[in-house]
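does this look right to u?? flavin-adenine dinucleotide version
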Amino acid sequence: MQIPNTADIVIIGGGVMGASAAYHLALRGAKNIILLEKEPYFGTGSTGRCAGGVRYQFATDVNIRLSQLSLPMIERFKDELGQEVNYKQCGYLFALNNENDISVFKKNVELQHKLGVMTEWLTGDEIRKRLPLMKFEDMLAGTFYQKDGIVDANSVVSGYISAAQRLGVKTLSGAEVIGITVSGDKVEEVQTTLGAIKTRMILNTAGPWAGQISAMAGVEIPITPIRRQMFTTNPLQEIPLDFPFVIDFSQSLYFHREADGLLIGMSNANETAGFDQSVDEDFELVNMEAALERLPLLAKASRAAHWAGLYEVTPDAHPIFGKTPVEGMVLCAGFSGHGFMHGPIAGKLMSEYILDGDFSSLDINMLDLARFAEDRLIKEYNVV
Ligand SMILES: Cc1cc2nc3c(=O)[nH]c(=O)nc-3n(C[C@H](O)[C@H](O)[C@H](O)COP(=O)(O)OP(=O)(O)OC[C@H]3O[C@@H](n4cnc5c(N)ncnc54)[C@H](O)[C@@H]3O)c2cc1C
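got this back:
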């Protein structure tokens, strides 16, 4: 494959962030853009391994506003890009079994209502009535928002990649970035396994690997890769078509419909940082036992598939957008396990930042890299 030796913009990482940014930059008329992905296919990093959940229910102003911009873009996706992405608005139902979580979620719902997200507050009995198959005797309260749901992540990536290609973006898979040359505090060249590209603008959308890419330019960023895993079951005809995305919040255990069965995951609180993406079979048993306790009909289920991927966690569980100390090296990474749903608007915001020097769709200047050094961390509670 012949690689161009210069580019106006080099995007590193072909997950949802890189694909969305490539499309939105090209849509605005930017030329000479190259998107580099180390794997043979786009979207096989975190994006292709995610649970596909999309929600408005967040605990901070900025996350709710990102959802309010991003989820309607997913609703319009087929009309705008010609690609079906299967947005199922089944709702997210957070089930809570302790007073501490209840008082935090009450504040979250207050904030959501203030911003126009009319989340429902449920009593324990209302949860049990909605979810008769679940053993939720200890649930005291919960929340539900109908427009939350699930979307096919692979379709979103392929929709953006195809549209970016139609608009002239050169998209290269099997192109691993192995070095970056900085000269006098400005980026100068990207070295890849297919050759070198001279450029003055690099967008780092390498997800859990974003720290490695930044380090090549001498920039340290606080993004930690943490393994998360899930499994799917064979078809279970008892699960109703309108079964929501159910989260047993205190155990960070979740269930949603996947084809005719379920997708089930749980966060391992003891997981250590690292790039290992193999399934931890011991923890899978812990997950299965917890799931069986909550949903006894799983006793007759069998596992259809399982996989692991990496969260890209920052110290305040919010993403990092914009400039770094090296001129021409910009960031869109660190979405801390809920980035798929914000990919559409994140790519658009980065196109504004790169082409106009500012974010115009939403003021996200507080999500800069400097906040970590300047002690301006943003606190988020509602992340599983
Ligand atoms: C198990 C799991 C469940 C999740 N569930 C949800 C969910 O329900 N909803 C939600 O919104 N989010 C969820 N997420 C989080 C979401 O997947 C991520 O926040 C999002 O996909 C990040 O997208 P990205 O484009 O930044 O990263 P990625 O998709 O990881 O893309 C980065 C790309 O960079 C490439 N790359 C890395 N190094 C190099 C290099 N040197 N050269 C070239 N390319 C390189 C990688 O191969 C990769 O394709 C989940 C994540 C996991 C792991």
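The chain has a mean pLDDT of 97. idk if thats expected tbh
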